[in-house]
Write a structure and sequence with these properties.
Elements: E1 7-8, H1 16-19, E2 23-25, E3 31-39, E4 46-51, E5 60-65, E6 70-73, E7 79-82, H2 87-91, H3 111-114, H4 123-131
Parallel strand pairs: 2-7
Antiparallel strand pairs: 1-6, 2-3, 3-4, 4-5, 6-7
């Protein structure tokens, strides 16, 4: 695919609405993966790319600054991106895990998981704990 004729996206267009599910191409036009979600927007954003896998199964999520991608729109209006990084280089990056403050993250529950409770609680954890009556019954029972 000749990417030189494709229109580059403006910084203001680097949003989750435009970039989620965009295909990422590496050197030699190799399909590397796709953008699953973003943290932030514009030139300071970080994109989470699912690398490898098949139909989303077995893919490894890695985070990249959006500046490492050349994001563009082809003649049909389909947004995609290129990078100078190979699939192997991206797979070598640490796996991305969303922080607990990100509401798409769900912490495991159960007896085994509570043998080593989290060392820190987020504000959301504390508010949920305080609002759940079974976690702190009143002393007048």
């Amino acid at each position: 695919m000749d990417h030189t004729t494709h229109e580059r996206l403006a910084t203001s267009e680097l949003t989750e609405d435009n970039l989620v599910d965009a295909t990422i191409y590496g050197p030699d036009d190799e399909t590397i993966g796709s953008i699953s979600h973003m943290h932030g927007s514009g030139s300071e954003a970080r994109v989470v790319v699912d690398v490898g896998g098949f139909l989303g199964i077995g893919a490894k999520p890695v985070a990249l600054p959006v500046g490492q991608l050349d994001v563009m729109r082809d003649a049909e209006g389909i947004v995609h991106a290129t990078t100078s990084l190979s699939k192997a280089e991206l797979k070598a990056l640490p796996e991305h895990r969303d922080q607990p403050e990100d509401h798409s993250y769900v912490r495991s529950a159960g007896r085994k998981e509570m043998d080593a409770p989290p060392k820190t609680w987020s504000k959301t954890d504390e508010e949920v704990d305080e609002s759940f009556p079974a976690s702190d019954p009143p002393g007048n029972y």
